[in-house]
Amino acid sequence: MTEHNNPVRVVVIGGGYAGTLAANRLRQRADLDITLVNPRPHFVERIRLHQFAARTGDATIDYGTLLGDGIRLAVDSATRIDTATRTVRLASGRALDYDYVVHAVGSTAPPPPSVPDAAGLALPIGEFESARRLRARLDDLPADAPVTVVGGGLTGIETAAELAERGRRVTLVCGRGLAPTLSAPGRRYVAKWLARH
Ligand SMILES: Cc1cc2nc3c(=O)[nH]c(=O)nc-3n(C[C@H](O)[C@H](O)[C@H](O)COP(=O)(O)OP(=O)(O)OC[C@H]3O[C@@H](n4cnc5c(N)ncnc54)[C@H](O)[C@@H]3O)c2cc1C
User: Fold this and answer.
1) Cα(164)–Cα(158) distance, rounded to whole angstroms?
2) Which residue has its alpha carbon closest to ligand 1 atom 10?
3) In the prediction, which pLDDT does 118 show?
């Protein structure tokens, strides 16, 4: 980075794992003015969303316990990075001037499957708000109602396992086979565990 008389303004867009770590690491330089932009006032541990949905764990952490001193939190969404004026425009109408931007917005879950009868019944689990909707929907179901988890990758397996451990009747639908990223022994272990539960 170049030498500046004024603090160098860094805007970190996205307060997930990457953005939060980046903001904290950047504090090692005393000449930086760091603002973290995130739509929610709390950190969402995405890797715990299946536990949050199944009510076996929590998935939010107060930024106050994560962010180092001096990092400003703007609870807002970036809508545009205007490179001509060096500003990050926010949904609230505010704009943040920057010298550098860290773009750490993560990934977005795909929309629910386009199976006609599943419309309105299928809920994604990849984001906090949809996981919360799923949790509320599960709360409304009788304990023995069948639940189908679609997707035999690691997130689907974790979700199915968590729900099964809560006593739910779960069917896991795997398009390309169970846990394609695991080794053959790993897949066998997962299949046995799921069958047992
Ligand atoms: C149920 C589940 C289980 C998982 N389990 C594992 C696991 O066991 N191990 C593993 O390695 N990975 C796991 N993953 C994947 C892991 O969660 C992601 O790889 C990880 O969250 C990516 O981190 P990130 O910081 O890039 O993005 P994220 O954690 O998604 O953070 C991005 C942040 O940016 C914010 N944001 C988005 N758009 C804007 C905007 N325009 N303006 C401001 N902020 C914005 C988002 O709201 C969010 O807070 C799991 C995912 C899910 C859904």
Assistant:
1) 10
2) 47
3) 67
Query: How many angstroms is it from 38 CA to the middle of ligand 1?
Result: 12
Q: What is the residue-averaged pLDDT of the chain?
A: 93
Order of strands across the sheet that contains 78-82: 78-82, 87-90, 95-97
Q: What's the pLDDT at 56? A: 95
Q: Do residues 98 and 21 share a domain?
A: yes
Contacts (Cβ under 8 Å, ≥6 apart) of 92:
76
From the CA of 106, how far away is ligand 1's center (Å)? 5
How far away, in angstroms, is 4 Cα from ligand 1 center?
A: 33
Q: Supply 134's token pair.
A: 């799923």
Ligand 1 binding site (Cβ under 6 Å of any ligand atom) = 13-19, 37-39, 44, 46-47, 49-50, 77-78, 104-106, 125-126, 155, 158
Domain count, the chain: 2
Query: Which of 43, 75, 103 marks a domain boundary?
Result: 103
Which of 80, 103, 126 delimits the end of a domain? 103
Positive or negative CA dihedral for 129, 132, 134, 137? negative
Tell me how far the alpha carbon of residue 44 lies from the centroid of ligand 1, in angstroms.
8
Say yes or no: 160 and 99 in one domain: no
Does residue 144 sit in the same domain as residue 91? no
Per-residue model confidence (pLDDT) at position 117 = 66
In a shared domain, residues 99 and 141: no
**Residue 154: domain span:** 116-196
Check residue 120 and give its pLDDT: 73
Residues 32-86: tens digit of each pLDDT = 999 999 999 999 999 999 999 999 999 999 999 999 999 999 999 999 999 999 9
Q: Report pLDDT for 111.
A: 67
Q: Is there a single domain that holds both residue 137 and residue 187?
A: yes
